[in-house]
Amino acid sequence: MPKAPVRTYTVLPRLPDRLAALQKIAYNLWWCWHPDAVRLFWRIDRDEFERTGNSPIKILATIGQERLEELLTDDSFLAHMDRVEVALDQYMRASTWFSETYGARKPICIAYFCAEFGIHESIPIYSGGLGLLAGDHLKSASDLGVPLVGVGLMYRQGYFRQYLNVDGWQQERYPENDFFNLPLIAETAADHAPLLVTVPFPDREVKARVWRLQVGRVPLYLLDTNIAENGPNDRAITSQLYGGDSDMRVRQEMVLGIGGLRALYALGLEPTVAHMNEGHSAFCTLERIRLLMDAHKLDFATAAEAVRAGTCFTTHTPVPAGNDAFPPQLVEHYLGWYGKALKIERGALLGLGRIDPNDTAEPFGMTVLAIRLANTTNGVSKLHGEVSRQLWHQVFPQLAVSEVPITSITNGVHARSWISGEMTQLYQRYLGVEWDERPADHSIWRHAEQIPDAELWRTHERRRERLVVLARRRLKEQLQAINAPNSLVDQADEVLDPDALTIGFARRFATYKRGDLVFRDIERLIRIVNRADRPVQFIFAGKAHPADAYGKEIIKRIVAFTRRPELRRRVVFIEDYDVAVARAMVQGVDVWLNTPRRPLEASGTSGMKAAVNGAINFSVLDGWWVEGYSGDNGWAIGAGEDYADHLYQDDVESRALYELLESEIVPAFYTRTSDGVPRAWLQRMKRSISTVTPFFNTNRMVQEYVERCYWPAAQRYHDLAADGLKKAAQLAQWRRRMERSWAEIEVKSVETPHEDGLLVGSELPVRARVALGKLAPADVDVQVFYGPLDSFGGIVRAHTLSLEPSAAAGDGAWDFKGSIALHASGQFGLNVRVLPKHADLANQFEPGLIVWA
C-alpha cells in the first residue's frame, strides 16, 4: 500500500511575462460572458479548448512550449489579448448602477448563500435551474456593482455525469473535480497557511478550507471539507451535490450555513444582509444570532430581532416534499449544542423549524426556519408567490391566504451569458451598443422590431445548423459508447434536418415536468414529424435525480421512441445535459417546449434563455410564462386550468399541444415569401425578443432584490443594531410584553348602522369596542377587514381600514371608530381584527399575533 505524502505542493503553468494577462483573465470568470474573451482562448487551440470543457485554466496548463512561442510572435493574438485585458480592467473600475444609486449612503455587505452555483460548464458544482439562477444572479450583481458576496460548497465530485445504457436507462458517474485545474484561489490566514474554519459537531469539530472564485466584481467563497484535518466521513461532506441521506444533508447544510458565515467573518466580512437562496443555508440565521449574542452579551430575543431584520429568503419549491425537513432527533443530535449557545430551551430551538412549534412530532423544516427568521420572503414568479402563500399559510394560521407575508420577485436570466455571438452582433447593429449594459430597458428592446427579416432569419438558420451538427456528433458518441452496430453509428450523420422546424425540450426530468407528454398519441406525432413538405423534429436533453426512478423511466421511454424507425431521424436525446448543451439548444432551436403540470413549475428559466435568442416559447401557462405570454409572442397550451385528475389533464393538454402544432406552429414556420423567409414567424419571433428579454433578465431581478429586499433589510439592520443594538432590545422587550398580554385582548362588540340598501358613494361607519388589558391603543392596530362575499359567504379580495381610538370605555376597553367608503355595489361583509403595531416591525403579521371579532 503506498504511503501518504510527507508534503504536498502545487505546480502552476509557467507563462512568459508577455502572456501573463492570459492567466489574469482566466482567473476571473468575467471572461465567460464576454464573447471577445472567449474568442481569445479559442485562438490558442479551439479543438483543445472544447475538449477541456471550454476551460481556460486547463488549456493554459496543457499548452505546449512550441505553441507558446508561436503566440509570442503573433502580433494579432497579442493585440487581442491586450484588448481583453484592458476591457477587464475597465469593467472592474467602472462606475455602476449601484454606486450611482446608493453609493453615497451607508455601505452594506450582502451575503448570498446557495447550495449550488452554475456559472460555467467548466466548473461543475451545479445540478440545474437553482444553480444556474444563482450563477446568473452573481453575474448581474457584478454588472450592477451590487456589494454582494456568494457563499457555497466546493464539491469534490459535484453533480453526477449522465450516460445511458443499451436500454436507455440513466446511469451516473462521479468524476473528481481537479481543484488545481479550476480557477480557484485559495484564501489564506495571516500566517499564509490555508484559511480554515471550524463547524462544531456533536463530538468533534469539522474543518473546512475556503476557496474563492472571482465572478467579475463578485467573490464567491466555497467551503471544502475534503482536507487531511478531517476524518473520512467528514471529508465526504462536500463530496457530492445533493448526495447521501438526511444525515448527510444536515451535515452539508451545517457546513454551508454555519461554516459559510464563519468563513465570511474570518475574511473580515460581516454581512449586513444574508440572502438565503432556498432553505439549505437557513442555519446561517442561528449562527448570526449566536455571534451577535457573544459579541454584545445579548439575550436570544434581542439578537434575533437584529438578525431577522437583516435576512432575506427566497423559496423555489412549490410542493411540500421539495422542502428539506429533518427528524427532530437528527436536528437535536447535530444542533443540540446550539440551544445552550443561544440560551433557549430544546423545544424553543426545534419550534423555530416547525409550523406548529408545540407539535413535538413535527419534523424540523428548513423553509419554516428561514421564513420565521427572515425580514422578507419571496417566491420566484407571481403564480409561485400565490402557491407559496397557500403552501405556508399554516405558519400564519389566522391570516387570510392573500395576506401571508410571502411576496414574489420573478426570476430572470443573465442575457449576455446565453445569447449567441451571431445574435450579439445583430443586436449591436440594430439595438445599439448599450443593450448589454441596460438589458432591462424596454425602449432598447423595442428596436428588435426593426431588425430586417431576412438578416434575422439567416442568422438563426446558421445557429440551427450548428445545433444539428452538435446533436449528430453527440449521438454518434453515445452510440459508440454502448457498442451499437456500425450501421446505427453511421446513421447518426443523417439524423435531423438543418432546415426543419426544430423543437427543444431540456430540463430536469421530474415527473411533474411531463417530458414525454408529446409522445402521448404516438401515431399522431409520427404523422406530424414525417410530413415530407413540412417536417418537424425534436431534441431532448436532461437528467433525472439519481434516486428518481420515475424520472429515469420517462427518459427511458423517450429514448425508446427515438429508436423507432419512424422517429429515428426526427427525435434525438442528447445525454449528459450541462450548460454547454443548454447554450447550444437555446441558441439553435426554433421553438422551446415546456409541459409542466400546473401549478408545480415555480418559475423555470430555460424558456427565457431561448427567448433572448429568438426562439419562441410553446408552454403550459405555469411559472414565468403566465407573466410572459401576451398572445402574440409564443403559444400557450391550455388556458391556465388546474385539474384534479392528472390523467385527464394529460389527455387534454397533449391534444391541445398537437392541435397547436398542426394548425398554427407548423404552418407559420413553413409559410414563406418568395425569398424563402417566414414573415409571420419572424413577427412572432421579434415580439418574443422585445417583450420577454427586457423583463425576464437578472439585471431587472437583482435590481428588484436590492430595492425591495436588500436595501430595506440593510436599513432595518443598521437601525436595530445601532447603539449596541438598543432598538433591537427595545423591540424584543415590546414583543415579550405583547406575547404576555395578548390573551387579554378581546373584540367585545362591532357596531354599524342597521339599515341595508346602502348607496354607492356613501360611507359605512364602523365602531369597535376592544378590551386591551394592560396594553395601550398605541400598541395595536384595530382594523376593519372587508370585501365582497363569495358563494360560501367568505370575504374575498379583502381590503383593510385602520380604526382610530376615540375614547376609553372603562375596564381596560377602548372604542375605535372609522368609516368604509362604498365604491361598488354588491354583497359585502366585514370583520374586525386586532394586530400588534410597532414602528420597527418588518410587517404586522410577522409576530403571529392576531385577534378576530
In a nutshell, what does this entry contain?
By secondary structure, this protein is an alpha/beta fold.
Number of helices: 29
**Please, what is the CATH homologous superfamily of the largest domain?**
Glycogen Phosphorylase B
Mean pLDDT: 94
Fraction in beta strands: 15-25%
Give the CATH level 1 class of the largest domain. Answer: Alpha Beta
Find the count of extended strands (DSSP E, 2+ residues). 28
What composes the largest sheet?
10 strands, mixed
CATH topology of the largest domain: Rossmann fold
Helix content: 40-55%
Termini separation (Å)?
77 Å
How is the topology of this model organized?
Layout: H1 20-26, H2 35-44, H3 46-51, H4 56-62, H5 65-72, H6 75-93, H7 97-102, E1 110-113, H8 129-144, E2 148-153, E3 161-164, E4 170-173, E5 185-186, E6 196-201, E7 204-215, E8 218-224, H9 232-235, H10 246-266, E9 273-277, H11 283-296, H12 300-309, E10 311-314, E11 325-326, H13 328-342, H14 346-351, E12 364-365, H15 366-372, E13 376-379, H16 382-391, E14 407-408, H17 415-418, H18 421-430, H19 442-445, H20 453-481, H21 486-491, E15 501-506, H22 522-529, E16 536-541, H23 549-562, E17 571-574, H24 579-588, E18 591-594, H25 606-612, E19 616-620, H26 625-628, E20 634-637, H27 646-670, H28 679-692, H29 698-741, E21 746-751, E22 763-771, E23 780-788, E24 799-802, E25 804-810, E26 813-821, E27 828-836, E28 851-852
Parallel strand pairs: 1-2, 1-9, 2-8, 9-10, 10-13, 13-14, 15-16, 15-18, 16-17, 18-19, 19-20
Antiparallel strand pairs: 3-4, 5-7, 6-7, 7-8, 11-12, 21-22, 22-26, 23-24, 23-27, 25-26, 27-28
